[in-house]
Amino acid sequence: MEYMKSIRKRNIQYRTIALIVVSLVSLGLLSFSPYGLLQTSAQEESEPLPDSFSYHDVEIINEESYLQNSNTIDYTIESGETLLGIFQREGGLSYGTSLALVQDISEVFSINRIRAGNTISFVFSNENIMSISYDISSNEELLVYFEGDDYTVVRQSIEYEVVEDFVAGIVEDSLYQSGLRAGLTDRMIMELATVFAWDVDFTSSLREGDQFFLVFEKRYRNGEFAGTGNLLAARFLNNGNEFFAYQVVHDDGSHKYYNENGDATEKMFLKTPLNYTRISSGFSLNRKHPILGTFQTHRAIDFAAPTGTPIETVADGTVVFAGWQGAYGNFIKIEHGGGIATAYAHLSKMNVKKGDRVRQGQVIGEVGTTGRSTGPHLHYEMYKNGELVHPLETKTPSGDPVPDSLRSTLQQNISLYRPLLTRN
Ligand SMILES: [Zn+2]
Question: For residue 65, what are the domain limits?
Fold first, then answer.
């Protein structure tokens, strides 16, 4: 076993070198790989090798011939097909072996969760079947490894090689388009908008010249790019304000983000009830400014948005009114505790009723133009102790600070990533 481990480590190093090459090749104008920061995945570092390690042992031993002579067939499952049939036809297995295999697989994975449109991969070497694999999720795979007439069924974590990447960009039109130009994936743009959703109103306060900086994971599987992983750290310069977010992984595996003071970026109140990540394509600096009028004119914020745009409650609370209210049209008011309430008017659709408990970010209704309104918009009010206050400028309670036990982890992440996030 010890021998196998050392072989395995060498194999990982080989892949790592390949990844350095990959990341160097992908250098872009605004994107570069920071000092070749490389990590193997968390599982590889923290988990001891399991006793039933036969698959990996065999894989490494056979690697030479495997690479030279193997061919992989990625078979897309069609509707109405059975595993039994696929194994016989695509894998060339006998009826008896296929039947036994289906039974063995069903002991580790519920077969009716295998969906048409998904892929089953068959690897052959010199016409002999070597393995069958199926991705249960982006984190877990089902694997059948053949050795002569024997096979082993394993359900295991997918091992990714993880590379850290850095991207910076400038907002020219929409955050979405600017993010794409800087080389971010859709998913990472959404992560960025989500992590700063409590600090920045992306639907109305984004400015040309705003800047974003991100350090995030890129995952590779067998040397091929397999999507972005977690956002590790980010900085956003918005209209003269600077925001930082650093990921800290908690003991239960959850990921939370904190600023440099150790305050959670996640707060009790979202910046706005219109979630940028739900409506990203519609919002651009080229559009007419989405805030109509000023707070002074009627003590509320009006967001221009198309009818049907989802409206989210900005904080947990209880619905105290949901119904028709004269000039307000369809109107929802929610109390959040601490003397703060918010209200949403002119809705085309209401998803909640009086007395409902709501969670921050829950879609409570849709933008409309009911009541006294000249066009589709959301009229958004905030009350503090019964008085109307400015929703975007009122100080609201912050979230939990980083736990003491994780303060040093946060500090390490700040030391590691701050120099990247702040370089010019
Ligand atoms: Zn209004």
Answer: 50-157
